[in-house]
Design a protein that fits this description.
The protein is an alpha/beta fold. It is about 60% helix and about 10% strand. It has helices at about 15-25, 30-65, 70-120, 120-125, 130-170, 175-220, 220-225, 230-255, 260-285, 290-330, 390-400, 420-425, 440-445, 460-465, 495-505, 525-535, 550-555, 575-580, and strands spanning about 350-360, 365-375, 380-385, 405-410, 415, 430, 440, 485, 510-515, 540-545, 560-565, 565-570. A six-stranded mixed β-sheet has the order 6-9-10-3-11-12, with helices on both faces. The chain has a four-stranded antiparallel β-sheet with strand order 2-1-4-5, covered by helices on one side. Strands 7-8 form a two-stranded antiparallel ribbon. Helix 6 runs antiparallel to helix 9. The longest helix is centred in the first third of the chain and has 50 residues, at about 70-120. The structure holds adenosine-5'-diphosphate and magnesium ion. Adenosine-5'-diphosphate binds near residues 125, 367 and 393.
Length: about 575
Amino acid sequence: MNYNLNSLPAGESRSSTWSGVKSLLKLVEQERKTLIIALCAVLLNAFLNLLGPFLIGHTIDKYILTKQYHGVLVFSGILLAMYVTAFVSSYFQTKLMGGLGQRIIFELRNSIFNKIQQLPLAFFNENKAGDLISRVNNDTDKLSQFFSQALMQFISNIVIMTGAGIFLVVINPELGLAALVPAAFILIFTKVVSPWIKKKNALNLKSTGAMSAEIQESLNNFKVIIAFNRRDYFRQRFHQANQDNYKTAIGAGLANNIFLPVFGFFSSIAQLTVLSFGVYLITKGYFTIGLLVSYLSYATNFYNPLRQLAALWTSFQLALAGWDRISQILSLNNNLVTIGYDDTVNPTNAVLEFRNVHFGYPGGYEILHNISFAMEQGKTYALVGPTGGGKTTTASLMARLYDPLEGTILLKGKDIRTYSPEERAEKIGFILQEPFLFTGTVRENILYSNALYRKFSNEQFIKVLQEAKLEGLLNTFDKGLDTEILSGGDSLSIGQKQLIAFMRAVLRKPELLILDEATANIDTITEQLLGQILSNLPKETTLVVIAHRLNTIENADEIFFINSGEVTRAGSFKEAVDRLMHGKRLS
Ligand SMILES: Nc1ncnc2c1ncn2[C@@H]1O[C@H](COP(=O)(O)OP(=O)(O)O)[C@@H](O)[C@H]1O
Ligand SMILES: [Mg+2]
């Protein structure tokens, strides 16, 4: 599955307007009741709006021209009552739809976020956090705006327009048709330019995402930026992103506003036609003044909504472009599915086995070529080799952060894909090369994904740590378990972070514990402490250690060399040293 959200060319509308509308409507299925009530309010409003001009024309012809002012008063009263009712119904409709828009944004943000949480690592490798944030924040907002403001106005305008159009034709077919001809031009124009407008808006949303990604990257890397005094570099990149955004925004703005003058022009033409043709008809005696006033009013009632529809159409196109970007995320699936038991593979006794495994990162070269090895329960294995050789990649496959392109990985004799994510997480502990911590306390971070001890008091929990011989590691934190970790671990050294990750993994007593250079940033004394803790683990625990220092791999039962995507068994430490002496260098 292609997880790169931006690999689709910008603005290539994957869906037509109509299928976009259909999928948008699915979003509001549960809101049917609100929609129906709001719709009734809108229809009432539209009906009152349409009735107005008719009554005015009637008043002019029947009462004003005949000077029956009593009737004028009565009709003025009726009109006032109508306008007040229209105002109230419009208020309720706005209130209902505003709430609906907010509920939609709430639900959408939830479902995007949940979806993102289910996606595999490959998705996060291929997309920038800033762009994802922009999709969750900005694009959903475009949709909410559409639902809270535009949708009902859209319907209301269409109803008023259709009603006015019918009145125009019914009152006088010839004059009506003459009044409606300019609208046909507008429709054709709209049809022609809509894809272009949508494309411009999609480009704009994309560049907003890119700018957000740029900001996020420089905020994440501010230490490097300041240390290397390369503010200019990021300033320049930001400037570029900002400029792109500015340009696409201008493009989108122009596209969005192109309707207004065109609509205005055709609407004026229509008014002019009605006026001149109408006056001509009056002189011929086919038409009354009151009728002409109503008529002009209906022409306005036809063209004004049309002009507003132009603006709403823009909001609609924007919502569609945002929806495209959102549904791109929602349509992704985790390709690391759990499969049923696969009995084509012969089970083995090995705790972990690679069989003819090939692997490459999405869109990249093959990194691991035809790898086969087995690891036995209770033993310690060391993976060594030059930087970039594929150690972390091999370890990631062991924990099923990715699936191999070819070949099988067996965990305890069963295809690793047959384990549910929970089972896998329980069996495998993985201490990443760059541990990730959350803002919170040391205790909260150690107990992340560990429900067993979460309810323990600090004293009880320290006892647990003592039993696991982990307590000594807490000395590095000035307030012990309650030490606050700020901004995702920035307040700690990498070594300290690794210690927390270490405690987190060891406390869960996994059957397979993978340490990816977990001791690289830890002093030798603490490292000895870690060594003791590891030797204190249950005998059945299988350890996979990726390390550079010789003393860490000295105790390994077996060493694997990983270089250029090949994994070679190097036997015990002594045999490995012999190999090393013959020209192979540990990096
Ligand atoms: N997320 C990734 N996407 C694409 N390529 C990657 C990714 N991670 C690592 N690589 C590439 O895979 C190769 C092996 O990397 P890695 O397994 O991290 O090596 P090691 O841990 O031995 O230093 C390198 O060429 C690296 O550039
Ligand atoms: Mg590595």
